[in-house]
């Protein structure tokens, strides 16, 4: 780890005043500190934002609001989250160990970097870490990599479980920077790699995530998150599915479906949703999750795995009725 300056402002304005091109915000630190130790990230200044008033969970008429510094464990156990949006609670509880969930913030989870081994190994090329250096995963060890949203420059998988659930529910993030505040749908917040995989989201220099907003969706109480991984404890998804279904009189009136572990960004599946609304069988709808997939030599199994994760989530919801 390289030497750095440290600051701990008391308010958002103070944090933004300190932010610059060589600075990094520190919340729970469960990603940033690891990457600093590996020298994947080498900020000259670390700005501790834990004193900022950006916590809390509030159910309001227009939906659910999370402060960006709310800890994952607290958010998962909040009665409004567990009762009204179980897909969010389940995604959080499946995200990491209890120790990490007690430290990690919601905003930090949404901004965590990929778990691609090439990205984290500074002795290897990586277009995400060093633009133009290459992507060894294309022809190397790619079992855990993406099959959706990939490019010839990057096939790294987005790691956040929470982001998958939030994208399925049309959540937005509120951002604050030197130019003021703005709200961005989470589905538009993340960028597919294309030719610029080092640009992972639309955050501007020095901008801070302050709040997460989930629109009011009464039938989101009928939702589930399924995560398939190599081991049960503290492992990232090989494939996951966030599903919410409005089921009335035996008919699917509406649906929200997104998958994780298989895309370079959290991957919403409007074709699957439309098929469910049209009365197609679960199997026929889930089959559409493969549209646009570009499997590599080591990860073709992920296409089927994502489809089965969707089916399992739908089956869990059907059993609740």
Automatic annotation (TrEMBL):
Alphabetical list of SMART domains matching this protein: CO_deh_flav_C
Keyword Coiled coil appears in the UniProt entry: no
UniProt keyword Ribosomal protein present: no
Coiled-coil features, chain-numbered ranges: none
Keywords on record: Oxidoreductase
Domain FAD-binding PCMH-type: 1-219
A GO term for molecular function: FAD binding
Name of this protein: Xanthine dehydrogenase YagS FAD-binding subunit
């Amino acid at each position: 780890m390289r030497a750095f300056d440290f600051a701990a402002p008391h308010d958002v304005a103070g944090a933004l005043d300190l932010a610059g091109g060589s600075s990094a915000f520190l919340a729970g630190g469960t990603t940033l500190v690891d990457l600093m130790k590996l020298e994947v990230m080498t900020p000259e200044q670390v700005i501790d934002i834990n004193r900022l008033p950006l916590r809390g969970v509030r159910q309001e008429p227009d939906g659910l609001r999370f402060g960006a510094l709310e800890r994952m464990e607290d958010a998962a156990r909040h009665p409004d989250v567990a009762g009204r949006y179980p897909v969010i609670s389940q995604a959080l509880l499946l995200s990491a160990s209890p120790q990490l969930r007690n430290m990690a913030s919601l905003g930090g989870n949404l901004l965590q970097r990929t778990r691609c081994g090439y990205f984290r190994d500074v002795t290897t090329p990586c277009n995400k870490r060093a633009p133009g250096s290459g992507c060894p995963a294309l022809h190397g060890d790619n079992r855990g990599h993406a099959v959706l949203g990939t490019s010839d420059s990057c096939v790294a998988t987005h790691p956040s479980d929470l982001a998958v659930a939030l994208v399925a529910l049309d959540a937005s993030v509120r951002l604050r920077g030197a130019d003021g505040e703005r709200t961005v749908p989470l589905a538009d917040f993340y960028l597919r790699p294309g030719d610029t995989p080092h640009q992972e989201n639309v955050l501007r220099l020095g901008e801070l995530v302050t709040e997460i907003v989930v629109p009011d969706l009464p039938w989101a109480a009928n939702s589930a998150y399924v995560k398939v991984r190599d081991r049960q404890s503290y492992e990232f998804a090989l494939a996951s599915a966030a599903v919410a279904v409005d089921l009335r009189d035996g008919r699917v009136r509406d649906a929200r479906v997104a998958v994780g572990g298989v895309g370079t960004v959290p991957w919403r599946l409007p074709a699957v949703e439309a098929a469910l609304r049209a009365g197609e069988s679960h199997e026929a709808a889930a089959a559409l999750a493969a549209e646009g997939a570009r499997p590599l030599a080591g990860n073709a199994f992920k296409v089927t795995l994502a489809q089965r994760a969707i089916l399992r989530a739908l089956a869990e919801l059907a059993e609740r009725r």
